[in-house]
Amino acid sequence: MKTLQIVGLVAFFWVAGASGLVADEEVEIRSRIVAYQNAWNAGEANALAAFYDEQADRANNSGKLFRRRAEIREHYRKVFAQSPPSGEERKLTYHDITVRLVSADAAVVDVDYEVSGIRAAIGFPVQGRNTVFMINRDGTWMRAAHRNSIPLSPDCLKLCAANSFLPKQ
Predict the structure, then answer these.
(1) What is the pLDDT of residues 70-83, one digit of tens each?
(2) Which CATH number covers residue 63?
(3) How many domains does the chain have?
(4) Within 13 Å, how many C-alpha atoms sit on residue 74's CB side?
């Protein structure tokens, strides 16, 4: 009976400790997501690239895939070289961040976002969802894969139709 009690206590403290580690990892991942948002809002291509693992890839809203950190950095340099519309601030805002630890060193993060001030031709903010696969590389949570998706809002559908981006039926 005493052995069963000891095993029970060990299991309790192991689970309690593990859940504390999970909570700590989630806090660290969330802080990395917010730091990424801040670097984006500062227009720092080098700082953004540093959030990506050397072997990472990133797909933008149109599905173009950027492979490896250097190519991702160059993509952000081009994005930030575009001028926002007159009198408008370029801004990334994150909402509803969810973190799911897949293992001790891997996590999937979903985050809804809105970008304003970057696409003058569109005339409305870009909204969508990022799905980010993160890995813990030597104690630092890094982006290994980053995918954007945009729901087709009525405004987006109108824009696509006006520019012949939708297939003819």
Answers:
(1) 999 999 998 888 76
(2) 3.10.450.50
(3) 1
(4) 8
